[in-house]
């Protein structure tokens, strides 16, 4: 893969080495050697932050900064071979699927595993939408593509580290929600059971707008309302102009109570 300025080419392989090449001369500039500990199986590049994520055969995901060419994060928690992974649309999360049928979400700034759910069959491929609204997954023994909603659009999701016993069992979404399960039920299933008790030392209550104090009257306090609720307000006038009717509604024409038959005596079949 190539950096946005066409200065550096990054390559990786099963030898466990990450190599940085000069784009114009082809000369090897630097190298990261992981051959003594692991090998690299796949890579994903996020251009906006110049970060590359590498999945390794030791069931970890390592994040490397292209600018400094240093390892900045190591993400652990998968119990099976990593089948696919990707960055979120804003580069804040890493979403990975492994052969233990669990899809995990890590928060990059904190390196915490903030969400995980187990599905019926292993996920073989996944992708995050550019708008941050949906996660698309493909699964073994299935020919369909499943779409999952981003829960942060509806509620606040804390960035605390979760344990293995907080991994929820999720049913694959369906088009009609058979059996009383809708598309969002799996994301919110056992949410109350997954939360720790209030006497837990590591428990941090979710902040509410009333708990947030303004630092100064000259500063703005950002809202905790999900983006999907206020984003349309920026284009409210455009939406009103687009939805404005072009002409007033017309009343339907009155039809007679008895309609004449379309068949005549000559059209009727002979007995």
Which properties best describe this structure?
271 residues, mainly beta, 4-stranded antiparallel sheet, 4 helices, 15 strands, 7% helix, 31% strand, extended
How would you summarize this macromolecular structure in one to three sentences?
The protein has helices at residues 185-188, 191-194, 227-230, 236-243, and strands at residues 8-12, 17-22, 28-33, 40-46, 51-56, 61-65, 70-75, 82-87, 93-98, 102-107, 112-118, 123-128, 134-139, 145-149, 168-169. It is mainly β.
For the report, how would you describe the main beta sheet?
5 strands, mixed
Separation, N- and C-terminal Cα atoms? 80 Å
If strands are numbered along the chain, what order do they take across the biggest sheet? 8-9-10-11-15
The residue-averaged pLDDT reads: 80
Form type? extended
Given the structure, what is the number of helices? 4
Oligomer: single chain
How large, in whole angstroms, is the Cα Rg? 27 Å
The helix content, as a percent range, equals under 10%
Q: What low-confidence regions span 5 or more consecutive residues with pLDDT below 50?
A: 176-184
Supply the helix-strand structural class: mainly beta
